[in-house]
Specification:
Elements (H helix, E strand, L loop, with lengths): L2 E8 L6 H4 L5 E5 L7 H14 L2 E5 L17 H21 L6 E2 L3 H9 L1 H14 L4 E5 L3 H8 L3 E7 L23 H14 L1 E3 L5 E3 L4 E5 L5 H14 L3 E2 L5
Parallel strand pairs: 1-2, 1-9, 1-10, 2-3, 3-4, 4-5, 5-6, 6-9
Antiparallel strand pairs: 7-8
Helix pairs in contact: 2-3, 3-5, 4-5, 5-6
C-alpha cells in the first residue's frame, strides 16, 4: 500500500487548526516571525499531541507585514541565526508540553529562495543540523534544498504541493502569475493522486515530468482549507493510499 505524509502550515492565525488536525499527519507551526505568537504555538502544539500529528517548525523571514512571502536579502549568518532562534522558540513550547520536534520546513520566500539557491539551502540545513541532527528537513522535491540537506547528513522529506501548479522544470509557478494556485478541488486532488501513484506531475504547458513525494502540503490559510483537507484525506484513503507521518 502506498504511503504519504500530509502536512499543513499552521499557527498562522487562521483559527482552523483544531478542525484541520484530524485530516493531516504532520503540522508546520509558524514561530512568530511571519505569523503567530506564543499562545498560538502552544495551542497548536497541544492540538497536535491530542491528534497524534507530527510537530514541525515553520521558520521564516521576520516579515509579518507580508506574511513572510517577500524575499529579504540577509547575510548567511543572519539567516542561520533567525532559523535557529525560531527553532528554539517553538521547541521550548514543545518540550514544556512533553513532546518532541519532528521536522523543519521553511516558509514562504525563505523556502522559495532555498529551493533555488544552494548557499541559502545549505545555511538553513546547517542551522537545523546544529540544533538537532535527528530532525527531518522538509524541502521542495527535486530542488537543491534536498541536495544540501543530504550533504550535511540530515534526513529529508521531498515535498510536493496539492494546490500549486508546476513549471516544466519542476519548480512551482510563482504566486505573481495568475495560474499559480489551483482553486479547483477536484483538479488538486487529481494532481496529488497522479504524483503519489505515478510519480509524475503535469506542468502548466501540458508536459508530464517526474515528481517524487514523501509529503504533500496543503495550506491552512486557504479559503476552503478545511473542506479541501477533508476531501483530500478521503480521496487518498479511497485510492488505497495510507496517510502517515514520516518515520526514519
Amino acid at each position: 500500500m502506498p504511503t504519504i505524509d500530509l502536512n499543513c502550515d499552521m499557527g498562522e492565525g487562521m483559527g482552523n487548526e483544531v478542525s484541520l488536525l484530524p485530516f493531516i499527519s504532520s503540522a508546520n507551526i509558524a514561530c512568530g516571525y511571519h505569523a503567530g505568537d506564543t499562545a498560538e504555538m502552544k495551542r497548536v502544539v497541544e492540538g497536535c499531541i491530542k491528534n497524534k500529528v507530527a510537530i514541525g517548525a515553520h521558520p521564516s523571514y521576520p516579515d509579518k507585514e507580508n506574511f513572510g512571502r517577500t524575499a529579504l536579502h540577509l547575510s548567511t549568518n543572519e539567516i542561520y541565526m533567525l532559523v535557529k532562534k525560531q527553532l528554539e522558540i517553538l521547541n521550548t513550547i514543545i518540550v514544556a508540553a512533553g513532546a518532541n520536534m519532528h521536522h523543519v520546513k521553511p516558509h514562504g520566500a525563505l523556502y522559495n529562495m532555498a529551493a533555488k539557491n544552494p548557499t541559502i539551502a545549505h545555511i538553513i540545513a546547517m542551522a537545523v543540523k546544529d540544533f538537532d541532527t535527528d530532525l527531518i528537513y522538509y524541502g521542495m522535491s527535486g530542488s537543491v534544498m534536498i541536495e544540501e540537506a543530504k550533504k550535511v547528513g540530515l534526513k529529508t522529506a521531498r515535498e510536493v504541493f496539492a494546490d500549486r501548479t508546476y513549471q516544466p522544470d519542476g519548480s512551482l509557478t510563482p504566486r505573481t502569475e495568475i495560474n499559480a494556485l489551483i482553486t479547483d478541488e477536484a483538479f488538486a486532488i487529481q494532481q496529488v493522486l497522479q504524483i503519489v501513484n505515478n510519480k509524475t506531475v503535469t506542468a502548466t504547458n501540458g508536459s508530464v515530468i517526474a515528481m517524487h513525494a514523501d509529503t504533500v502540503c496543503i495550506h491552512g490559510d486557504g479559503i476552503n482549507a478545511l473542506r479541501f483537507a477533508a476531501a483530500l484525506n478521503n480521496s487518498l484513503q479511497i485510492a488505497g493510499i495510507n496517510i502517515k507521518k514520516i518515520n526514519y
